[in-house]
Amino acid sequence: MNMFDTVAAQPQLVLAAVALALGCGYLLWQVLFRRLPIHHFGTHQVIEALRWEPLAQQHRLAAQGSLTRLQWFLLRRRHLIRLRTELRIR
């Protein structure tokens, strides 16, 4: 008995593994690789968050015209941390 006989004997396991791999691949694609236009996240919110970023970062993102969901999440997180810090100082 070799490995292929074992896999062929349990098609449900193979189908479940394929479904899981496709689901994980889709999520990774959506979060890490798919680029969405800036207006998808709200132009005003992007401008507000970019206001706190270094000028080089602002120019780079404006030239790209798009963000991944992960980039947007990290940008918003940095923005909220800076706002929280500024409010504590006042």
**What is the global morphology?**
elongated
Mean pLDDT: 87
Query: What's the SSE pattern?
Result: HHEHHEH
Q: How many runs of DSSP E, i.e. beta strands?
A: 2
Count the helices. How many?
A: 5
Count of domain modules: 2
**How large is the share of residues in beta strands?**
under 5%
Spatial arrangement of strands, main beta sheet? 1-2
Radius of gyration: 21 Å
Structural class: mainly alpha
- Biggest sheet descriptor: 2 strands, antiparallel
Distance between the termini: 73 Å
Instruction: Name the helicity range.
Output: over 70%
Low-confidence stretches: none
Keywords: Membrane, Transmembrane, Transmembrane helix
Transmembrane segments: 12-29
Q: Explain this structure to me?
A:
- This protein has helices spanning 3-9, 11-33, 43-50, 55-64, 69-89; strands at 36-37, 66-67.
- The chain has 90 residues and is mainly α.
- The protein folds into 2 domains: 1-34; 37-90, no CATH class.
- A two-stranded antiparallel sheet has the order 1-2.
- The mean pLDDT is 87.
- Keywords: Membrane, Transmembrane, Transmembrane helix.
- The chain crosses the membrane at residues 12-29.
